Amino acid sequence: xxxxxxxxxxxxxxxxxxxxxxxxxxxxxxxxxxxxxxxxxxxxxxxxxxxxxxxxxxxxxxxxxxxxxxxxxxxxxxxxxxxxxxxxxxxxxxxxxxxxxxxxxxxxxxxxxxxxxxxxxxxxxxxxxxxxxxxxxxxxxxxxxxxxxxxxxxxxxxxxxxxxxxxxxxxxxxxxxxxxxxxxxxxxxxxxxxxxxxxxxxxxxxxxxxxxxxxxxxxxxxxxxxxxxxxxxxxxxxxxxxxxxxxxxxxxxxxxxxxxxxxxxxxxxxxxxxxxxxxxxxxxxxxxxxxxxxxxxxxxxxxxxxxxxxxxxxxxxxxxxxxxxxxxxxx
Length: 331
Hints:
Layout: H1 3-21, E1 35-41, E2 45-48, E3 54-58, E4 66-67, E5 72-76, H2 79-104, H3 108-139, H4 146-175, H5 179-204, E6 207-209, E7 214-219, E8 226-227, E9 234-237, E10 243-249, E11 261-266, E12 273-286, E13 300-308, E14 320-325
Antiparallel strand pairs: 1-10, 1-14, 2-9, 3-5, 3-8, 4-7, 5-6, 7-9, 10-13, 11-12, 11-14, 12-13
Helix pairs in contact: 2-5, 3-4
C-alpha cells in the first residue's frame, strides 16, 4: 500500500475515534444511567438543661435510652422553690388585704371615733375660749399676771389647732381612701401575683423533660450535682424523622427534583432504605472533604436533603451513605 493511500485511511480512523469520544462532536446526547449521590445521615442533636439552677435530685434515664417527647429525664430538689412559693403566697395575701381595706373604706366605728375626737376638741376649745374671754378685761388693770395671760392665749391657740386637726381627720375618715391609693394597692397585688406565678414557673422547670423523641447520647451530670441555669445535662439525638444530607454535582443538578423517590444504602449494611428528596439548596458550594463523587474530583455541588421513610436502628447518624436515583428527572 502506497503512502498516499495510507494517509486518508489514518485521517478517517482518527475522525471516527474523535467522533466516538465526543459523541458526534456533541450532536448526540450523552446516555444517562442511574444517578449515584453521596452523603451522610444528618446529625441532629439538642443539648438539654434546666432553666433554673439547683441540686439534681434524681436522673431516671441512662445513656443509650430511647425516650419519647415529655418523658422525665431529671429533676431538681424543690425545697428552695417551695420556700419561695410560701413566701410569695404570704405576700399576695398581705397585698390583697391592704387592697380590701382601702376598697371597703372607713368603718362606722372609725367615723364615730373621729366624731368623738372632734367633740372633745370642741369642748376643750370652748373652755379655752371662755378662759380667754374672762381674763382679757383683767389684763389692762393688771389684775392678772402677764405670765398667766400668755398661758391663757397659748392654751386657746392650742385648743383651736386641735379642733381644726380633729375636724380634718373626721373629713378624711368620712371621705375614705383616695383613688390613687386604691390603684397603687391594686398594682401591688398584681405584682405579688406575678412574682408568685414566676415562682410556679420555676417550680415546673425543676423537671427536665425530653423535647422530642430520641436517644440519650450523653448524660453529663449525676444526682447531687449543682447545676447552673442552661447548663447541659443531657444531649439528645433526634432520630425521627431521619434525614440524609447528600450532594449532587453541578452537571447533574438538572437530573433531580424535589419529591423524587430514591434508595439509600450504607456501608456494611445490606438493607436498602427508601426516601424522598425534600430540599435542594439554591446555593452552590465546594465538595466537602468527606464526600467524593464517582470521578474523585473536587467540584461545585449542591446540597440536598432526603427524608428516609423506613429507617431502623442500623442506620445511624453521621454514617456515610450512597443515594441512588433510579429515574433521573427529564428536563
